[in-house]
Protein backbone atom coordinates (compact mmCIF):
# COMPACT_ATOMS: atom_id res chain seq x y z
CA UNK A 1 0.00 0.00 0.00
CA UNK A 2 2.80 2.42 0.83
CA UNK A 3 4.40 1.54 -2.50
CA UNK A 4 1.27 2.87 -4.27
CA UNK A 5 -0.20 -0.54 -5.09
CA UNK A 6 -3.47 -0.76 -3.19
CA UNK A 7 -4.74 -3.50 -5.52
CA UNK A 8 -1.71 -5.68 -4.72
CA UNK A 9 -2.26 -5.02 -1.03
CA UNK A 10 -5.85 -6.22 -1.46
CA UNK A 11 -4.63 -9.39 -3.20
CA UNK A 12 -2.50 -10.15 -0.15
CA UNK A 13 -5.30 -9.23 2.25
CA UNK A 14 -7.75 -11.56 0.50
CA UNK A 15 -5.39 -14.49 1.18
CA UNK A 16 -5.77 -14.01 4.94
CA UNK A 17 -8.41 -16.46 6.13
CA UNK A 18 -9.06 -14.68 9.45
CA UNK A 19 -7.94 -11.03 9.28
CA UNK A 20 -6.91 -9.45 12.58
CA UNK A 21 -7.26 -5.82 13.61
CA UNK A 22 -3.71 -5.26 12.29
CA UNK A 23 -4.63 -6.75 8.90
CA UNK A 24 -7.73 -4.58 8.61
CA UNK A 25 -5.95 -1.39 9.65
CA UNK A 26 -3.12 -2.01 7.17
CA UNK A 27 -5.55 -2.57 4.31
CA UNK A 28 -7.72 0.43 5.20
CA UNK A 29 -4.59 2.56 5.47
CA UNK A 30 -3.46 1.36 2.03
CA UNK A 31 -6.79 2.45 0.56
CA UNK A 32 -6.62 5.80 2.34
CA UNK A 33 -3.09 6.60 1.19
CA UNK A 34 -4.04 5.96 -2.42
CA UNK A 35 -7.25 7.98 -2.51
CA UNK A 36 -9.66 5.03 -2.30
CA UNK A 37 -11.70 6.32 0.63
CA UNK A 38 -14.95 4.60 -0.35
CA UNK A 39 -13.25 1.22 -0.52
CA UNK A 40 -11.76 1.90 2.93
CA UNK A 41 -15.19 2.66 4.40
CA UNK A 42 -16.72 -0.38 2.67
CA UNK A 43 -14.08 -2.64 4.24
CA UNK A 44 -14.49 -0.94 7.63
CA UNK A 45 -18.19 -1.82 7.64
CA UNK A 46 -17.30 -5.49 7.18
CA UNK A 47 -15.11 -5.63 10.30
CA UNK A 48 -16.52 -7.50 13.32
CA UNK A 49 -17.37 -4.87 15.94
CA UNK A 50 -15.42 -6.59 18.69
CA UNK A 51 -12.04 -6.15 16.95
CA UNK A 52 -12.42 -2.50 15.92
CA UNK A 53 -9.80 -0.52 17.83
CA UNK A 54 -8.28 2.98 17.91
CA UNK A 55 -5.91 2.29 15.02
CA UNK A 56 -8.67 1.03 12.73
CA UNK A 57 -10.85 4.05 13.57
CA UNK A 58 -7.91 6.37 12.96
CA UNK A 59 -7.11 4.76 9.58
CA UNK A 60 -10.68 4.92 8.30
CA UNK A 61 -11.17 8.53 9.44
CA UNK A 62 -7.93 9.45 7.71
CA UNK A 63 -9.14 7.71 4.54
CA UNK A 64 -12.38 9.71 4.74
CA UNK A 65 -10.39 12.90 5.27
CA UNK A 66 -8.36 12.38 2.10
CA UNK A 67 -11.45 11.58 0.03
CA UNK A 68 -13.82 14.24 1.40
CA UNK A 69 -16.24 11.66 2.78
CA UNK A 70 -17.73 13.91 5.44
CA UNK A 71 -21.00 12.03 6.11
CA UNK A 72 -19.19 8.74 6.48
CA UNK A 73 -16.58 10.26 8.80
CA UNK A 74 -19.23 11.90 10.98
CA UNK A 75 -21.12 8.63 11.32
CA UNK A 76 -17.95 6.78 12.33
CA UNK A 77 -16.92 9.53 14.76
CA UNK A 78 -20.38 9.59 16.41
CA UNK A 79 -20.20 5.85 16.98
CA UNK A 80 -16.91 6.10 18.86
CA UNK A 81 -17.68 6.43 22.60
CA UNK A 82 -16.54 9.79 23.99
CA UNK A 83 -14.15 8.14 26.43
CA UNK A 84 -12.43 6.40 23.49
CA UNK A 85 -11.99 9.53 21.37
CA UNK A 86 -8.24 9.98 21.61
CA UNK A 87 -6.22 13.06 20.65
CA UNK A 88 -5.44 11.48 17.28
CA UNK A 89 -9.11 10.65 16.65
CA UNK A 90 -10.09 14.28 17.31
CA UNK A 91 -7.17 15.53 15.19
CA UNK A 92 -8.17 13.38 12.22
CA UNK A 93 -11.84 14.39 12.41
CA UNK A 94 -10.81 18.07 12.59
CA UNK A 95 -8.55 17.53 9.60
CA UNK A 96 -11.44 15.90 7.75
CA UNK A 97 -13.57 19.03 8.25
CA UNK A 98 -10.73 21.39 7.35
CA UNK A 99 -9.90 19.58 4.10
CA UNK A 100 -13.53 19.96 3.06
CA UNK A 101 -13.57 23.68 3.94
CA UNK A 102 -15.87 23.10 6.91
CA UNK A 103 -13.73 25.25 9.18
CA UNK A 104 -16.57 26.25 11.52
CA UNK A 105 -17.32 22.61 12.32
CA UNK A 106 -13.62 21.96 12.80
CA UNK A 107 -13.33 24.89 15.21
CA UNK A 108 -16.34 23.67 17.20
CA UNK A 109 -14.64 20.31 17.61
CA UNK A 110 -11.35 21.97 18.52
CA UNK A 111 -13.04 24.06 21.23
CA UNK A 112 -14.83 20.96 22.52
CA UNK A 113 -11.52 19.10 22.76
CA UNK A 114 -9.74 21.97 24.53
CA UNK A 115 -12.42 22.18 27.23
CA UNK A 116 -10.70 19.24 28.91
CA UNK A 117 -7.33 18.93 27.12
CA UNK A 118 -4.23 21.00 26.41
CA UNK A 119 -3.82 22.38 22.85
CA UNK A 120 -2.65 19.85 20.26
CA UNK A 121 -0.14 21.05 17.66
CA UNK A 122 -1.36 18.80 14.84
CA UNK A 123 -4.89 20.20 15.13
CA UNK A 124 -3.59 23.72 14.56
CA UNK A 125 -1.41 22.58 11.67
CA UNK A 126 -4.61 21.30 10.08
CA UNK A 127 -6.24 24.73 10.40
CA UNK A 128 -3.16 26.45 9.01
CA UNK A 129 -3.14 24.06 6.04
CA UNK A 130 -6.83 24.76 5.45
CA UNK A 131 -6.18 28.50 5.60
CA UNK A 132 -3.37 28.14 3.07
CA UNK A 133 -5.53 26.09 0.70
CA UNK A 134 -8.34 28.65 1.01
CA UNK A 135 -5.88 31.57 0.78
CA UNK A 136 -7.39 32.94 3.98
CA UNK A 137 -4.76 34.91 5.97
CA UNK A 138 -7.31 35.97 8.60
CA UNK A 139 -7.97 32.35 9.55
CA UNK A 140 -4.26 31.55 9.42
CA UNK A 141 -3.32 34.46 11.67
CA UNK A 142 -6.13 33.67 14.10
CA UNK A 143 -5.03 30.06 14.52
CA UNK A 144 -1.33 30.94 14.60
CA UNK A 145 -1.98 33.45 17.39
CA UNK A 146 -3.82 30.75 19.38
CA UNK A 147 -0.98 28.22 19.16
CA UNK A 148 2.03 30.57 19.19
CA UNK A 149 2.39 30.72 23.02
CA UNK A 150 2.89 26.94 23.05
CA UNK A 151 5.55 26.86 20.29
CA UNK A 152 8.52 28.23 22.24
CA UNK A 153 10.26 24.88 22.68
CA UNK A 154 8.80 23.20 19.61
CA UNK A 155 11.14 24.09 16.73
CA UNK A 156 9.63 21.62 14.24
CA UNK A 157 6.06 22.81 14.77
CA UNK A 158 7.15 26.46 15.06
CA UNK A 159 8.86 26.23 11.68
CA UNK A 160 5.94 24.47 10.01
CA UNK A 161 3.43 26.91 11.48
CA UNK A 162 5.35 29.98 10.33
CA UNK A 163 5.96 28.54 6.86
CA UNK A 164 2.22 27.87 6.47
CA UNK A 165 1.39 31.35 7.77
CA UNK A 166 3.85 33.00 5.37
CA UNK A 167 2.64 30.90 2.45
CA UNK A 168 -0.98 31.83 3.18
CA UNK A 169 -0.17 35.54 3.06
CA UNK A 170 1.81 35.00 -0.16
CA UNK A 171 -1.02 33.06 -1.79
CA UNK A 172 -3.44 35.83 -0.80
CA UNK A 173 -1.21 38.38 -2.54
CA UNK A 174 0.30 39.95 0.60
CA UNK A 175 3.96 39.37 -0.26
CA UNK A 176 5.15 42.08 2.18
CA UNK A 177 3.74 40.30 5.24
CA UNK A 178 4.96 36.94 3.95
CA UNK A 179 8.46 38.37 3.51
CA UNK A 180 8.40 39.83 7.03
CA UNK A 181 7.49 36.45 8.54
CA UNK A 182 10.25 34.69 6.58
CA UNK A 183 12.80 37.31 7.60
CA UNK A 184 11.90 36.82 11.27
CA UNK A 185 12.27 33.06 10.82
CA UNK A 186 15.76 33.51 9.40
CA UNK A 187 16.74 35.85 12.21
CA UNK A 188 15.50 33.39 14.84
CA UNK A 189 17.47 30.55 13.28
CA UNK A 190 14.44 28.52 12.23
CA UNK A 191 15.06 26.78 8.92
CA UNK A 192 12.52 25.38 6.47
CA UNK A 193 13.03 21.73 5.63
CA UNK A 194 14.67 21.30 2.23
CA UNK A 195 12.51 19.60 -0.40
CA UNK A 196 13.85 16.20 -1.48
CA UNK A 197 12.58 13.69 -4.03
CA UNK A 198 13.68 10.13 -4.74
CA UNK A 199 13.07 8.00 -7.83
CA UNK A 200 14.31 4.62 -9.03
CA UNK A 201 15.70 4.28 -12.56
CA UNK A 202 17.33 1.07 -13.80
CA UNK A 203 17.31 -0.32 -10.28
CA UNK A 204 19.20 2.63 -8.79
CA UNK A 205 17.81 5.25 -6.41
CA UNK A 206 18.46 8.87 -7.39
CA UNK A 207 17.86 11.74 -4.98
CA UNK A 208 17.16 15.33 -5.99
CA UNK A 209 16.87 18.50 -3.93
CA UNK A 210 15.34 21.75 -5.18
CA UNK A 211 17.52 23.31 -7.91
CA UNK A 212 19.94 20.40 -7.65
CA UNK A 213 22.77 20.35 -10.19
CA UNK A 214 24.87 17.64 -8.59
CA UNK A 215 23.56 14.80 -10.77
CA UNK A 216 25.95 13.72 -13.53
CA UNK A 217 23.12 14.14 -16.07
CA UNK A 218 22.02 17.55 -14.82
CA UNK A 219 22.59 19.18 -18.20
CA UNK A 220 20.22 16.73 -19.91
CA UNK A 221 17.72 16.91 -17.03
CA UNK A 222 17.42 20.70 -17.18
CA UNK A 223 17.25 20.67 -20.98
CA UNK A 224 14.37 18.17 -20.81
CA UNK A 225 12.68 20.23 -18.12
CA UNK A 226 12.84 23.32 -20.31
CA UNK A 227 11.44 21.41 -23.31
CA UNK A 228 8.71 19.96 -21.13
CA UNK A 229 7.70 23.33 -19.67
CA UNK A 230 7.49 24.91 -23.12
CA UNK A 231 5.45 21.96 -24.37
CA UNK A 232 3.00 22.32 -21.48
CA UNK A 233 2.63 26.04 -22.12
CA UNK A 234 1.31 25.09 -25.53
CA UNK A 235 -1.38 23.11 -23.72
CA UNK A 236 -2.41 26.00 -21.49
CA UNK A 237 -0.08 25.61 -18.52
CA UNK A 238 0.93 28.80 -16.70
CA UNK A 239 3.03 28.80 -13.56
CA UNK A 240 1.28 29.95 -10.40
CA UNK A 241 3.81 32.22 -8.68
CA UNK A 242 1.72 32.39 -5.51
CA UNK A 243 3.21 29.00 -4.56
CA UNK A 244 6.75 30.41 -4.35
CA UNK A 245 7.60 30.12 -0.67
CA UNK A 246 10.86 32.06 -0.40
CA UNK A 247 12.27 35.47 -1.40
CA UNK A 248 13.41 35.55 -5.04
CA UNK A 249 16.94 36.51 -6.06
CA UNK A 250 17.51 39.36 -8.50
CA UNK A 251 18.43 37.03 -11.37
CA UNK A 252 15.52 34.61 -10.85
CA UNK A 253 12.19 34.38 -12.64
CA UNK A 254 9.00 32.91 -11.17
CA UNK A 255 9.10 30.07 -13.69
CA UNK A 256 12.73 29.35 -12.85
CA UNK A 257 12.00 29.04 -9.12
CA UNK A 258 9.06 26.66 -9.60
CA UNK A 259 10.78 24.61 -12.30
CA UNK A 260 13.56 23.75 -9.89
CA UNK A 261 11.33 21.88 -7.44
CA UNK A 262 12.77 18.47 -6.67
CA UNK A 263 9.91 16.36 -8.02
CA UNK A 264 10.13 18.09 -11.42
CA UNK A 265 13.81 17.20 -11.65
CA UNK A 266 12.95 13.59 -10.81
CA UNK A 267 10.24 13.56 -13.50
CA UNK A 268 12.58 15.03 -16.11
CA UNK A 269 15.25 12.47 -15.18
CA UNK A 270 12.79 9.67 -15.89
CA UNK A 271 11.78 11.24 -19.20
CA UNK A 272 15.34 11.32 -20.59
CA UNK A 273 15.58 7.54 -20.22
CA UNK A 274 15.31 5.31 -23.29
CA UNK A 275 12.88 3.77 -23.68
CA UNK A 276 10.77 6.41 -21.93
CA UNK A 277 8.97 4.75 -19.00
CA UNK A 278 5.19 4.60 -19.03
CA UNK A 279 5.11 4.55 -15.22
CA UNK A 280 7.13 7.01 -13.13
CA UNK A 281 7.27 6.71 -9.36
CA UNK A 282 8.59 9.39 -7.00
CA UNK A 283 8.74 9.83 -3.23
CA UNK A 284 8.91 13.33 -1.74
CA UNK A 285 9.58 14.40 1.86
CA UNK A 286 7.27 17.44 1.72
CA UNK A 287 3.79 18.00 0.39
CA UNK A 288 3.44 18.71 -3.32
CA UNK A 289 2.75 22.39 -3.96
CA UNK A 290 -0.29 23.42 -6.00
CA UNK A 291 1.73 24.46 -9.03
CA UNK A 292 3.70 21.19 -9.14
CA UNK A 293 0.42 19.30 -8.81
CA UNK A 294 -0.99 21.08 -11.88
CA UNK A 295 2.31 20.65 -13.74
CA UNK A 296 2.46 16.91 -13.05
CA UNK A 297 -1.14 16.38 -14.16
CA UNK A 298 -0.33 18.07 -17.46
CA UNK A 299 2.86 16.04 -17.91
CA UNK A 300 0.99 12.76 -17.42
CA UNK A 301 -1.61 13.85 -19.97
CA UNK A 302 0.73 15.28 -22.60
CA UNK A 303 3.36 12.53 -22.37
CA UNK A 304 0.72 9.79 -21.86
CA UNK A 305 2.24 8.16 -18.82
CA UNK A 306 1.28 7.45 -15.23
CA UNK A 307 3.16 9.40 -12.57
CA UNK A 308 2.90 8.35 -8.94
CA UNK A 309 4.08 10.79 -6.29
CA UNK A 310 4.06 9.78 -2.64
CA UNK A 311 4.40 13.00 -0.66
CA UNK A 312 4.45 13.61 3.10
CA UNK A 313 0.67 13.24 3.35
CA UNK A 314 -0.62 10.86 0.72
CA UNK A 315 0.01 9.21 -2.64
CA UNK A 316 -1.01 10.98 -5.85
CA UNK A 317 -1.68 8.90 -8.97
CA UNK A 318 -1.53 11.15 -12.04
CA UNK A 319 -3.18 9.42 -15.00
CA UNK A 320 -2.81 9.88 -18.79
CA UNK A 321 -6.34 11.32 -18.95
CA UNK A 322 -5.23 14.32 -16.89
CA UNK A 323 -6.78 13.24 -13.59
CA UNK A 324 -5.19 12.79 -10.19
CA UNK A 325 -6.46 10.18 -7.74
CA UNK A 326 -6.81 12.88 -5.08
CA UNK A 327 -9.44 14.67 -7.18
CA UNK A 328 -7.40 17.89 -6.67
CA UNK A 329 -8.20 17.50 -3.00
CA UNK A 330 -4.89 17.54 -1.16
Automatic annotation (TrEMBL):
InterPro entries to which the protein is assigned, alphabetical: DYW_dom, PPR_At4g14850-like_plant, PPR_rpt, TPR-like_helical_dom_sf
Domain DYW: 236-330
MF terms (GO), sorted A to Z: RNA binding; zinc ion binding
One GO process term, biological-process aspect: RNA modification
PANTHER family: PENTATRICOPEPTIDE REPEAT-CONTAINING PROTEIN
NCBIfam families hit by this protein: PPR (TIGR00756)
Name of protein: DYW domain-containing protein
Amino acid sequence: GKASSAYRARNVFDQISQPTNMSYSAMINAYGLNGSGREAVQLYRQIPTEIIDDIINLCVLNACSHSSLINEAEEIFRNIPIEKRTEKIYSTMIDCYNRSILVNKAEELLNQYEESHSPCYSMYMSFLSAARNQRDPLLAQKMFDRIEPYLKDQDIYATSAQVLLANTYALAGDSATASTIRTKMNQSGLKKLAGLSWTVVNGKVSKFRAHDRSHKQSKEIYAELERLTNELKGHGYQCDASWISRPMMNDETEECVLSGHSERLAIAFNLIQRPIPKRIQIMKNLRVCGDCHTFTKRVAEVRQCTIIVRDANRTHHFYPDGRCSCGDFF
